[in-house]
């Protein structure tokens, strides 16, 4: 597709093999230096910083949040707080919901009795379906209602990308991390 | 009506996936790159009656094939040659991001530079003169906020311009040291003779000088596939004749 008739990968390889290996050493470093120089030059001409102080503050905060030493402890502490808030905070609304559903179950049972509904129907609908659903809702809903907004907040503050950055460093090979800056 | 292929490339966390979602909405599906454990997200959108097939390439800091992610991104740009490559930059970290943009512009001229997180940059007091930057880079530059869906229309317009070749960008090329430039000049015509005009000869010459085996291996794999395809076509031709 689109290759000229004389296209030949093997010829490329032999072309590379003809290049003096001795001359290759250090060329990557030079390439990277030249790239950075050009990038710097372009940005110097087109990007202006009106509020250097604010910028320095965010950089400083960034450095702490993603530092090799503090990145992970801060992350674990944040996660700990989030989980604690979720679990502790969910207890109260959970039991309130459970109580609420329990009261309704009482009414439902009374209604079934008033209608002389058979026991098996009451068993399936009230003791099975209703109780199961209300249990799931009272256990699941409050933690979700707390957990997701907190995460949305962290996301809004831009903390999650910093977590991603920390995790990247954990999972990428050390050689790649050594060369970034 | 035609279909164009658009690739999104950029550093990690520059909002590529957010932009991808903003562009394609629900018309997307994910899988893996053939034989690699790298996620491949593909989707499409319609604009002015044409279909645009979008690929969200893995985020990379450079394209020197240090990792599978970098190789996937590089191979897609160089070998699969999308109609438009959208280079997504984090407007709050221009210098670090520009580095990747320059590398991509060595590999393809059919590019649009997209300055994302422009809302954050504004809050931080960062001002970017995108018109001047576009002149200096030689490709269209669009400011957007993918999350707030700002500037998307202008981006779509510029993607269309490049896809339909109403704009044929002439991207700036990094000038290397005299020594490297001299050797590129020696090598480039030879490379061009071997692989034709469809591929970035200058960039491949640079990779040869750099001793980068993997791009040659990738080229060989493609050429191999190409050769067997040709063989099949010849075989088909023969069986038809009988
Ligand atoms: N403020 C702001 N945040 C954004 C914007 N675009 C993306 N983000 C956020 O940047 C982070 C990284 O985005 P993502 O799309 O995952 O980046 P990717 O790694 O390049 O795919 C997420 O937290 C996004 O919500 C934007 O235009 N403005
Ligand atoms: Mg992504």
Automatic annotation (TrEMBL), chain A:
What InterPro entries does the entry give?
FeoB_GTPase
**Is Transmembrane there in the keyword field?**
yes
Q: Where are the transmembrane segments?
A: 69-87, 135-154
Domain of life of the native organism = Bacteria
Q: Which UniProt keywords apply?
A: Membrane, Transmembrane, Transmembrane helix
**Stated name of the protein:** Uncharacterized protein
Please give the organism: Paenibacillus cisolokensis
UniProtKB/TrEMBL annotation, chain B:
Q: Which Pfam families match?
A: FeoB_Cyto (PF17910), FeoB_N (PF02421)
Q: Where is the FeoB-type G domain?
A: 3-165
Supply the alphabetized keyword list.
Answer: GTP-binding, Nucleotide-binding
Q: Supply the PANTHER family for this chain.
A: FE(2+) TRANSPORTER FEOB, FERROUS IRON TRANSPORT PROTEIN B
Write the protein's name.
Iron transporter FeoB
Gene it is expressed from: feoB
């Amino acid at each position: 597709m689109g290759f000229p008739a004389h296209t030949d990968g093997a010829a490329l390889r032999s072309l590379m093999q003809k290049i003096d290996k001795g001359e290759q050493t250090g060329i990557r470093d030079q390439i990277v230096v030249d790239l950075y120089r050009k990038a710097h030059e372009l940005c110097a001409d087109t990007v202006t910083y009106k509020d250097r102080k604010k910028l320095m503050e965010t950089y400083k905060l960034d450095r702490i949040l993603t530092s090799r030493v503090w990145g992970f402890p801060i992350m674990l502490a944040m996660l700990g707080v989030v989980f604690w808030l979720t679990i502790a905070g969910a207890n109260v609304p959970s039991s309130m919901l459970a109580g609420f559903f329990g009261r309704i179950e009482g009414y439902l049972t009374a209604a079934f009795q008033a209608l002389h509904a058979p026991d098996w129907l009451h068993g399936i609908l009230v003791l099975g379906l209703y109780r199961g659903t209300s249990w799931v809702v009272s256990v699941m809903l409050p933690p979700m209602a707390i957990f997701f907004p907190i995460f949305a907040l962290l996301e809004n503050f831009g903390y999650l990308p910093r977590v991603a950055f920390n995790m990247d460093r954990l999972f990428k090979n050390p050689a790649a991390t050594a060369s970034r800056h | 009506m035609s279909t164009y292929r658009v690739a999104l490339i950029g550093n990690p966390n520059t909002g590529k996936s957010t932009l991808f979602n903003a562009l394609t909405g629900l018309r997307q599906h994910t899988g893996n790159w053939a034989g690699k454990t790298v996620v491949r997200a593909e989707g499409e959108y319609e604009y002015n009656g044409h279909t645009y097939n979008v690929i969200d390439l893995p985020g990379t800091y450079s394209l020197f094939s240090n990792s599978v992610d970098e190789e996937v991104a590089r191979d897609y740009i160089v070998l699969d040659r999308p109609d438009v490559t959208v280079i997504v930059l984090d407007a709050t970290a221009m210098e670090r991001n520009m580095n990747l943009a320059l590398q991509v512009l060595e590999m393809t001229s059919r590019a649009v530079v997209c300055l994302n997180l422009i809302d954050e940059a504004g809050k931080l007091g960062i001002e970017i003169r995108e018109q001047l930057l576009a002149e200096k880079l030689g490709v269209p530059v669009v400011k957007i906020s993918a999350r707030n869906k700002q500037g998307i229309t202008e981006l779509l317009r510029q993607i269309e311009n490049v896809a339909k070749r109403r704009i044929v960008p002439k991207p700036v090329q990094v000038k290397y040291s005299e020594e490297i430039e001299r050797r590129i000049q020696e090598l480039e015509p030879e490379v061009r003779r071997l692989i034709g005009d469809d591929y970035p000869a200058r960039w491949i010459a640079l990779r040869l000088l750099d001793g980068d085996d993997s791009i040659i291996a990738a080229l060989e794999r493609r050429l191999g596939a190409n050769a067997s395809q040709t063989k099949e076509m010849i075989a088909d031709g023969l069986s038809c004749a009988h």
